[in-house]
Amino acid sequence: MWNEFTWNQIVAPSLGVQFRGQGRIEEGISNADYREIETALSWRYSPRWTFAAAYENDQRFGEDEDVVHMPSLNATLMIPLRDWLLSNRFRMEFPVSQTGEDPWRAVYNNQTTLETKWKLGSRELRPFLSDQVRYSIQDGAFAENQLSVGVGIPVASHWTAQLFWMRLDERTVEGWEWHPVLGVQIASQF
To answer: Which pTM value belongs to this model?
Structure first.
């Protein structure tokens, strides 16, 4: 179970700040296993391009306890295609483990999303297809791929549910492993 909170604030006509926090319960329902805290400053260059600089602090609890500091640089391109919106986020991450086992790394993260709006009676459905890949610059190899398909459904004023299926592929020491993920996300926006 993942819980996430995001706060966005426009501070100038083309500048914004964001704060995001995420907590995860992955193994046992009684223990928090992981948390992320991220702050970002974004600049909307044009209706199609947004750039951001961010700092993320990740902490894993339990046996593999670790803290990772991760600055990142982002560029997002948004292209409207009639009734569809194509977006592509280019992100360079530089994770540094606090345990010191690994020096800093460079990871390229790319997420492409295609979404649209469909009317179903009085409701507006938002079907989407998304693919996110992670490429380790030091290893010269892909590390992860997340292919998702789903639909967003408004459930009440300011509340949306998103149902999705994701194929999560991860590179391990034994090779590639894939995991099917069925997800439900409930979001509120004010």
So the answer is: 0.86
Q: How far apart are CA 49 and CA 36, in angstroms?
A: 26
What is the 3 state secondary structure string of 34-79?
A: EEEEEEEEEEECCCCEEEEEEEEEEEECCCCCEEEEEEEEEEEEEE
In the numeric block, the tokens 């604030």 are attached to 9
Cα–Cα distance between 57 and 71 in angstroms, integer?
Answer: 9
The residue behind tokens 């020096």 is 103
* 77 and 51 Cβ atoms separated by less than 8 Å: no
Strand partners, 53: 41, 73
Determine the pLDDT at residue 34: 85
Q: Say if residue 14's pLDDT is above 90.
A: yes
Total Cβ atoms within 10 A of residue 80: 11
Distance CA 110, CA 132 (A): 6
d(C-alpha 34, C-alpha 22), whole Å: 8
Residues in the chain: 190
Dist. CA 161–CA 188, nearest whole Å: 9
Long-range CB contacts (within 8 A, 24+) of 122-128 = 123/153, 123/154, 124/154, 125/151, 125/152, 125/153, 126/151, 126/152, 126/153, 127/151, 127/152, 128/152, 128/164
